[in-house]
Specification:
The chain has seven helices and eleven strands. With 218 residues, the protein is an alpha/beta fold. It has a single domain, classed as 3-Layer(aba) Sandwich (Rossmann fold). The protein has a seven-stranded mixed β-sheet with strand order 3-2-1-4-5-11-10, sandwiched between helices. A two-stranded antiparallel ribbon has the order 6-7. Strands 8-9 form a two-stranded antiparallel sheet. β6 and β7 form a beta hairpin.
C-alpha cells in the first residue's frame, strides 16, 4: 500500500519541520502525557520528531506509520515499524501509553483507530490525542488573517478534501479527513475510552485540540 506521505517525506523533513513548533505541540504533549515509565507507542509517528520529548519524560518511545518514506527519516529517533493504525501490530492490553500527534485527519477510519488504541492499552493506560482543531481548521476555514478565521459552510459535512487556505502546509498536498467535534468525541466514547483532560493551543483562535483519555480499570 502506497502512503500519501511517501511523496512529500523529504519536503516534510527538510522544509516543513525546520519551521519549529509554532503550535506548541511539545508543550501540550509534555502537559498531557507527563512523566512515566514503560513503552509509549506513537501511531502515525512519521519522522519520529516527538520521540526525544517522550524519552525525556521517562517513557520508551516506539512508533508505527504507514509511510515508508517518513519512516526512513525516523531512523535513529525511535524504533518503528510500517503498519496500519487500524490494525496495530500489538497484543491486547500491553501498553501503558499511546499517543497520536497531528495525525487523526490523515486517518479516514479514525474511530477504528481509537478502538485499536483501546484494545492495546492496559487497563488504566492513557491515550494522548493532539490534533488539528475541528472547529477552526479544515477546507471550510480560511486562516489567511492570523487574528481571525473565516468559517464557510462545510464544518458539519464530515468529508475528505485537499482544499486549504495555504500552499505551504501539509493539507493541500496529502488532503485531510474532517471530524466535527461531536463525532470526534463520540468516537472516543464508543471506543470505551474515558475522557480526562483537554487543551487548546495555537494562538487567539486555536489550531490544536488535545485530549487525554484513559482505558478504564475493570
Amino acid at each position: 500500500m502506497k502512503a500519501a506521505y511517501d511523496e512529500i517525506a523529504d519536503w516534510y523533513e527538510h522544509e516543513f519541520l525546520p519551521q519549529g513548533d509554532p503550535l506548541g505541540l511539545q508543550r501540550v504533549l509534555r502537559d498531557l502525557l507527563g512523566e512515566g515509565r514503560g513503552p509509549c507507542l506513537e501511531i502515525g509517528c512519521g519522522t519520529g520528531v516527538h520521540a526525544a520529548l517522550v524519552r525525556e519524560l521517562g517513557w520508551t518511545p516506539a512508533g508505527v506509520d504507514l509511510s515508508a518514506g517518513m519512516l526512513r527519516h525516523a531512523r535513529g529517533r525511535l524504533p518503528a515499524v510500517r503498519g496500519d493504525a487500524g490494525r496495530l501490530p500489538v497484543r491486547d492490553a500491553r501498553l501503558p501509553a499511546v499517543i497520536a500527534m497531528m495525525t487523526h485527519t490523515d486517518m479516514p477510519r479514525y474511530p477504528a483507530v481509537l478502538r485499536e488504541v483501546a484494545r492495546v492499552l492496559r487497563p488504566g493506560g492513557m491515550f494522548v490525542h493532539v490534533g488539528v482543531h475541528p472547529c477552526f481548521c479544515g477546507g471550510f476555514a480560511d486562516r489567511t488573517d492570523p487574528e481571525e478565521v473565516l468559517i464557510r459552510p462545510g464544518y458539519l459535512d464530515g468529508h475528505w478534501t485537499k482544499k486549504s487556505w495555504t500552499d505551504r502546509g501539509v493539507r493541500d498536498k496529502v488532503g485531510a479527513s474532517h471530524w466535527p467535534v461531536q463525532d470526534l468525541l463520540h468516537a472516543f466514547l464508543e471506543a470505551g475510552l474515558v475522557l480526562e483532560r483537554f487543551a487548546e493551543t495555537g494562538g487567539s483562535v486555536p489550531v490544536v485540540l488535545a485530549i487525554r483519555a484513559r482505558k478504564p480499570q475493570p
